[in-house]
Amino acid sequence: MKEVVLTKPPYMNASEQRIADMHTVLNIINILIGELSLTETEVPELSERSKELDAELHAIARAIKEGGELARIMPRIRDSEAAVLAHLREALEQEESASSRAEIKASISNLESIFAIFKKRLNELEFRMDDPDVWGQIAPDVFRQQFEDVFAAIAKNSKGDYGIHFNLNQKGQGDYYIDLKVEAQLDGGQLWMPLRLIDVLRDLTANARKYTEPGGQVALVVNQDESGIRAVVEDSGCGIPDDEIEKVTEFGYRASNVRKRPTLGGGFGLTKAAWLVTTWGGRLTIRSEVDQGTTIKLFIPNKPMPSNPPVFKL
User: Fold this and answer.
1) Higher pLDDT, residue 314 or 239
2) What ranges make up the beta strands (E) of 210-292?
3) Which residues form the Histidine kinase domain (predicted)?
4) Between the chain's N and C termini, which has fewer beta carbons within 10 Å?
């Protein structure tokens, strides 16, 4: 099993840095576009409106990539959400078929959960707009809830193909088990970290799940003491070929053993992690073996905490 330790950020130009930073938001837009396509099939009456919303979401993605102001983009997202959900609810009221009603209800529930995650991510972006590397305190249970919410949305989006559980006793044969442990050993028992680190860890754990077949396991362990933050993301997935481990942090690079796998991502998760962790003075370690899984470890030294630190409630 090969291991690579990274202490310097991968090269990215300004445009690539912005795309990497917006990686999570852009992924959610792609998920919404895919869900709308399915909704259009299930509710033909929404075909025209779905096409309009699809075009608007693509336009929003372009605006984000090109550096558009979030203050102008947010209202467009809220208007798009309101329009499509209103049309779905109207279709539900008019539909008489029990099976069609069930499909429409499932689409409404799924879209609501995706939009809820989407708006939280945009709110985080707004929070750190003036200071991209802002640090703050976050309670371990609030931190943990972030990941439970994300995986609940992923499980719902699977439409019953698999479950995702944080309790091994609840895991079925084709379900995922997520082992999530968070510990803060600082005074007050709160985590003290850059807001963007939460985004990095969400991306890494979501990718670990994506490249692990149903029935597999993903672990996230976060610990902070007086020296800094340590995190481990580990999976039982497909792994990375030895000669490509150092390449997977390059912008847009995907390992050869997963290139044909359909995915809504852009290959930026590890790029973003390596870029930010090393920029913060930390290090990122990648250990992997094909068909056995991948372990990603990171360490970030603590930044001095002010007397009245900001609190991330998320």
Assistant:
1) 239
2) 217-224, 228-235, 283-289
3) 194-304
4) N
